[in-house]
Design a protein that fits this description.
By secondary structure, the chain is an alpha+beta fold. It is 41% helix and 29% strand. It starts with a strand and ends in an 11-residue tail after the last strand. The mean pLDDT is 92. It holds the Pfam family ACPS.
Length: 137
């Protein structure tokens, strides 16, 4: 497995909570996909989950070697909960173009959070030479 890039991020949960409080639905729809919003809102400590997804998106973009530039939008990256809690990264739009260009086959991500901070680590791995990109919508 070839490592194409790594990324990490940490964010204060209250900061994300303030942005949600201040900008509401506009903020949520700009940053998160519909699926992410539903997931986070269904959790007991929703703000921590939103902050975790924020940190994950930042870490993933760093692992891909781009920031929010290059036409990449926040919702081009989606973090999904797979079976038994394993996280899956879905990439689309400009982020997919960047991933394809860099030879990324998959992005692995881990999120941790408490009441104060959320952190995430992402690793972009190369795809086998003969395989198509995985999990890219």
């Amino acid at each position: 497995m070839e490592i194409v890039g790594i990324g990490t991020d940490i964010v204060e949960c209250p900061r994300i909570g303030k942005m949600i409080e201040q900008y509401g639905e506009l903020f949520l729809r700009r940053i998160y996909t519909e699926r992410e919003i539903r997931y986070c809102q269904s959790r007991k400590h929703a703000i921590e989950h939103f902050a975790g997804r924020w940190a994950a998106k930042e870490a993933i973009l760093k692992a891909l070697g781009t920031g929010r530039g290059d036409g990449v939008g926040w919702s081009d990256v989606e973090v999904r909960n797979g079976s038994q809690g394993a996280l899956r990264v879905m990439i689309r739009g400009a982020a997919k173009d960047v991933a394809t260009e860099r030879g990324v086959g998959d992005v692995l991500v881990s999120i941790a959070h408490c009441r104060t901070y959320a952190t995430a680590y992402a690793m972009a791995v190369g795809r086998p030479k003969s395989a198509p990109p995985a999990d890219q919508a």
